[in-house]
Amino acid sequence: MEYFLKLFLSGTAKGSIYALIALGYTMVYGIIQLINFAHGEIYMIGGFTALILGGFFFSNGMPVWLVLLFSVLLSIIYASAFGYTIEKIAYRPLRGKPRLSALISAIGVSIVLQNFVLLAQTEKFMPFPSYLPEFSWLQPYKEYINSTQLIILGVTAIIMVFLTLLIKFTRTGKAMRATAQDMHMAQLVGVDVNQVISVTFIIGSSLAAIGGVLICSYMGQINYYIGFVAGIKAFVAAVLGGIGSIPGAVLGSFILGWTESLGTGYISSDYEDAFAFVILIVILLIKPDGILGRTQRQKV
Q1: Shortest CA distance to 86 belongs to which of 39, 135, 16, 18?
Q2: What angle (nearest 5°) sits at the alpha carbon of residue 247, between those of residues 183 and 1?
Q3: How far is CA 252 from CA 64, 121, 144, 243, 286, in A?
Q4: Does residue 298 register a pLDDT over 60?
Q5: Alpha carbon distance 77, 49 (integer Å)
Q6: Considering Cα of 38, then 130, then 207, then 252, what sign does the dihedral take?
Q7: How high is the pLDDT of residue 246?
């Protein structure tokens, strides 16, 4: 039972990691039905930004908590600028064109960003210092969950609540819902659709940057390729839960995290990546729209 609990909590922390990225996927898809395959690279860029700035601030004698604060804030700003620019340059000109065009553009942006970081940094894994605090009261339970995992869980919960409140009760959220329901009708009633989509990309990129800092602190390393692997798994989690649904993205992420953790613990770690796609196939065979997804009715 102790072994199961340890694997379950580890899977919960891993699911929280996927959720931070999957939320960005599902927000963008919910608004413009676009799979932003460059989203994983935004997460990677957020991590590298925190690594570079954190090293600079720490070497200049700044306290650790300020290093963490400024690194996260500047990573969010930098990643958001990337997200905004990508939407404006790579996706907006293709709006209204066949979806395959935007999908190819997204894959192209992903490759460009990977190679940009590869040339600017290195192809090797780099150590990533953890600036996150250690909670002394967690010491008796450190075999089951550590401070970094608890922080990731807490941040994921706060972000999910924030996004839910934003979408349901704010003017921006209402504009997002109107745009997602019918973009052309939203324009007719005065919604600035371009601004709504830009804000969606900025929020999604901000979440990816936060995820990049937390996840790299948890793993203790970073390289240019981590965005692709994490992005694919987060996409699987979003589809699993029902892409376009915020609770669905979080639920799918936890299911994916638990499956990988329990599968590697009881079967073999060699099949960790395979477990994600096996469970995706099973769920989609049973419920093609995902666990919390809604069937899209086609107008004919």
Answers
A1: 39
A2: 160
A3: 34, 33, 22, 9, 15
A4: no
A5: 10
A6: positive
A7: 82
Q: Please name which of 277, 28, 14 lies closest in space to residue 152, comparing C-alpha atoms.
A: 14
Identify the pLDDT of residue 294: 64
Structure tokens at 295: 């069937």
Helix (H), strand (E) counts: the chain: 11, 2
Burial class of residue 266 in the structure, from the number of CB atoms within 10 Å of its CB (0-12 exposed, 13-18 middle, 19+ buried): exposed
Residue closest to 19 by CA, chosen among 288, 213, 256: 256
Cα-based distances in Å from 40 to 56, 99, 218, 243, 261: 25, 20, 17, 16, 21
Residue in the structure block whose two tokens are 């745009």: 179
Q: Tell me how far apart the 2 most distant CA atoms of the chain are, in Å.
A: 65
Q: Which residues of 184-200 are buried (b: 16+ CB within 10 A; e: fewer)?
A: eebeeeebebeebbbbb
Residue type at 282? V
| Contact criterion met (CB below 8 Å) for 132 and 147 | yes
